[in-house]
Amino acid sequence: MHWSFRPLRWLLPVAALALAACAPAPIYPVTAATVTVTPAQAAHAPEQYAKGAVIWGGSVIEVRNFPDHTEIEVLAYPLDSSQRPQPNAQGLGRFIAIYAGYLEAFNYPNGSLVTISGQLDGSRSSAVDQAAYVYPLVNVAQFHRWTAAELRAGHPDIHFGVGVGVGIR
């Protein structure tokens, strides 16, 4: 007897399409001006990426308000296809997002996940604890704080296994 997968061949494209439909679309468009560089790379060669557009995201470290702007220090993480930060991945360096105006720090607590689009605008030397550090600066065009529901979106609540389970929501 010869086993063949031909009757199931249609299942693979349907499954792939269904999974792709679950993932939300990117929130910011990638344009020809968008540079694909990490914050660590931009910090080492700020003149090379001067005025380049970036879409970066990560975890809020600190929010500082000034009279005419707000600075958000962010530890960058890789973004998924929907531009959600992936905090379980290796960090990509820190950056400072400069928002023209006031942001309530209470609404962006440490650890909040954010995605920003903006334009690189040089760098600033400072310190992380006792270590010297160079932060790329990004003038924010758009800024998004991810909610728990948005982070779960596109991840079906389906679990496979053997046994008995109890879930409470």
Automatic annotation (TrEMBL):
It comes from the Bacteria. Residues 1-32 form the signal peptide. The keyword Lipoprotein applies. The keyword Oxidoreductase does not apply. Keywords: Lipoprotein, Signal. This is Slp family lipoprotein. It comes from Dyella acidiphila.
